[in-house]
Amino acid sequence: xxxxxxxxxxxxxxxxxxxxxxxxxxxxxxxxxxxxxxxxxxxxxxxxxxxxxxxxxxxxxxxxxxxxxxxxxxxxxxxxxxxxxxxxxxxxxxxxxxxxxxxxxxxxxxxxxxxxxxxxxxxxxxxxxxxxxxxxxxxxxxxxxxxxxxxxxxxxxxxxxxxxxxxxxxxxxxxxxxxxxxxxxxxxxxxxxxxxxxxxxxxxxxxxxxx
Length: 211
Hints:
Order of helices and strands: HHHHHHH
Strand content: under 5%
Structural class: mainly alpha
Number of domains: 2
């Protein structure tokens, strides 16, 4: 009796362990299905997905720009900087609001440009990681345009910031790249369509199963 009493709890613990593993596997499978479903939606609604990705990526990067002093980098207030360009004679509050509107519109438009014109040119595999790297590459391109052209020629043309904005210091340059990497990272994770052949196979399988 004592032997059977000792064995019984061990069997129960094995069953509990198997049940926990099974539940975890089921949860992982369900999570993968959700991701696959979302990626299929992106593949079928690329413009809508680009608009969503542009809004979210621009907003998250904008928030990070305000928090950069917390890691020792200069704050990037693109709302006010754009406001000074678009509404130079307005009050600071109006500049912030008008600049914010143009800033977010710019972010969404650049995302549509990425989805329509840039993404098809990037030929490596459209896996989740591959799409994230595509977004990061696009963010790097935008950051380079910012420090080479926008900051010296558009935002501060009379400040003599130098080539690559180097007179503003390496921290400003790093902040600009970090801002655009946050944008590109979220862009690639949200605008994340599957490969076209994978989408085609998925569609064929769905049609076959419904017959």
